[in-house]
Amino acid sequence: MSENIVEPDTADTEPTVEEIAEQKQVRLDKRQRLLDAGIDPYAVGLAVTDTIPDVRSRFPDLEPDTATGERVALAGRIVFSRNTGKLCFATLQAGDGSRLQVMVSLAEVGDESLERWKDFTDLGDHVFVEGEVITSRRGELSIMVSNWAIAAKAILPLPTLHKELSEETRVRQRYLDLIVREQARQTVRARAVAVASLRSTFASHGYLEVETPMLQTMHGGASARPFVTHSNAFDTELYLRIAPELFLKRAVVGGIERVFEINRNFRNEGADSTHSPEFAMLEAYQAYGDYHQMADLTQEMIQNAAVAVSGSHVVTWADGTEYDLGGEWDRLSMYDSLSAAAGVEITPQTPMAELKKLADAVEIEIDHPLPGKYVEELWEHFVKGGLVRPTFVMDFPVDTSPLVREHRSRPGMVEKWDLYVRGFELATAYSELVDPVIQRERFVAQAALAAGGDPEAMRLDEAFLTALEHGMPPSGGMGMGIDRLLMALTGLGIRETILFPLVK
């Protein structure tokens, strides 16, 4: 049998529940026998001095049957094992998925240690090994073990490593996904690299990172249905935040003129390929900026993240598709593009009756009292599906954007854009509404919608208005979903980009 690294299991079917239960009992018995022999099956204080990827990088091209004379001490998970007489082979896997062969021989470790290896080790166990770096007769980089110990005894067996895990298993038992699948490990690394890149870009523009409350007495900053909880200490109803916006604006009022936060948001709404009830959000605010500057910053951030993750503005998705995030991105007027696509001029002054007539003509059901909602739904029907390149969709209806400054030259619109990438909304930005009088009027209108039964309408937030009345400088603000950024960079669905997604 070849000494090269091979897959640990060639079974065509997954073990049954009964077979897993039997294997578990066998492993529990081994754990107990280890304890009875005075051996800790979960050892601590192991003298690990090297790693599998480090050893592989230091010895890339050794000739077959080479003894280096260099000793290493490392640990890994057993993913292949073959016990044959006086020489046992195993493959250890590191957390990053890199693998290395180890050889446990009678001549090096002695009869008692060799028998313990054969008796006590199983696939999935973490083991510590110490020995000389060599190559086998077939040229496989290996460690000739002189000393070993069980680092952590696995009580349950690994899944069949050469077979795809089901999507359900991948999201419910992400730890198995990380052990088995390289794409899962790559996604975690890509997310970490992308977030580090975002922070680096912000730092280069003089932004400060802060943290704002997740438990709030008043939910706001977005139109969304909140999660509700109760504080025993304060004997009051609290909300998991739907957005950090109103607190970050308080920071701007206080003089933190360039501020951002990357943290969790919670919205008690549907879950699908682009939505999760719990998700990571980036929001940023810049005093004396506007939505044009936030568009420039957002494009720079995403392009920098693409380079950090893939080395290029052209990213390769999990299915092999290449997507170009480079160049200057298009900026498209919502009303102008809708008018062109629908073949009829639509403006903020278009009567509701005409909007309803157009919606009925294309069989779109819209049940909402605001004309702006019809405009947005009609735009999604007529225009959204045709967007291929990253595109900033500019200038939204005023009645659907209660926290946004009115457009400086186009009445009935606000200075807001949504960024579409891959056909979904990735980010949004405003020229912020900082006039406290107008903001109060907008909140009152939202409160009326809430009183009428709209669960997503905002409440009148007196504490935020008090802050605004102390003077907030004209500002630009933006928000972007971190999970959706990873979707844009990897081509994966949202449940794949979240390490531990919420599942029922």
Automatic annotation (TrEMBL):
<keyword id="KW-0436">Ligase</keyword>
<dbReference type="GO" id="GO:0004824">
    <property type="term" value="F:lysine-tRNA ligase activity"/>
</dbReference>
<dbReference type="Pfam" id="PF00152">
    <property type="entry name" value="tRNA-synt_2"/>
</dbReference>
<dbReference type="InterPro" id="IPR018149">
    <property type="entry name" value="Lys-tRNA-synth_II_C"/>
</dbReference>
<comment type="subunit">
    <text>Homodimer.</text>
</comment>
<keyword id="KW-0460">Magnesium</keyword>
<keyword id="KW-0963">Cytoplasm</keyword>
<dbReference type="InterPro" id="IPR004364">
    <property type="entry name" value="Aa-tRNA-synt_II"/>
</dbReference>
<dbReference type="GO" id="GO:0005829">
    <property type="term" value="C:cytosol"/>
</dbReference>
<dbReference type="InterPro" id="IPR012340">
    <property type="entry name" value="NA-bd_OB-fold"/>
</dbReference>
<dbReference type="GO" id="GO:0000049">
    <property type="term" value="F:tRNA binding"/>
</dbReference>
<dbReference type="GO" id="GO:0000287">
    <property type="term" value="F:magnesium ion binding"/>
</dbReference>
<feature type="binding site">
    <location>
        <position position="425"/>
    </location>
    <ligand>
        <name>Mg(2+) 2</name>
    </ligand>
</feature>
<feature type="binding site">
    <location>
        <position position="425"/>
    </location>
    <ligand>
        <name>Mg(2+) 1</name>
    </ligand>
</feature>
<keyword id="KW-0479">Metal-binding</keyword>
<dbReference type="InterPro" id="IPR044136">
    <property type="entry name" value="Lys-tRNA-ligase_II_N"/>
</dbReference>
<keyword id="KW-0648">Protein biosynthesis</keyword>
<keyword id="KW-0030">Aminoacyl-tRNA synthetase</keyword>
<keyword id="KW-0547">Nucleotide-binding</keyword>
<dbReference type="GO" id="GO:0006430">
    <property type="term" value="P:lysyl-tRNA aminoacylation"/>
</dbReference>
<dbReference type="InterPro" id="IPR045864">
    <property type="entry name" value="aa-tRNA-synth_II/BPL/LPL"/>
</dbReference>
<feature type="domain" description="Aminoacyl-transfer RNA synthetases class-II family profile">
    <location>
        <begin position="196"/>
        <end position="501"/>
    </location>
</feature>
<dbReference type="InterPro" id="IPR006195">
    <property type="entry name" value="aa-tRNA-synth_II"/>
</dbReference>
<keyword id="KW-0067">ATP-binding</keyword>
<dbReference type="InterPro" id="IPR002313">
    <property type="entry name" value="Lys-tRNA-ligase_II"/>
</dbReference>
<feature type="binding site">
    <location>
        <position position="418"/>
    </location>
    <ligand>
        <name>Mg(2+) 1</name>
    </ligand>
</feature>
<comment type="similarity">
    <text>Belongs to the class-II aminoacyl-tRNA synthetase family.</text>
</comment>
<dbReference type="GO" id="GO:0005524">
    <property type="term" value="F:ATP binding"/>
</dbReference>
<protein>
    <recommendedName>
        <fullName>Lysine--tRNA ligase</fullName>
        <ecNumber>6.1.1.6</ecNumber>
    </recommendedName>
</protein>
<dbReference type="Pfam" id="PF01336">
    <property type="entry name" value="tRNA_anti-codon"/>
</dbReference>
<dbReference type="InterPro" id="IPR004365">
    <property type="entry name" value="NA-bd_OB_tRNA"/>
</dbReference>
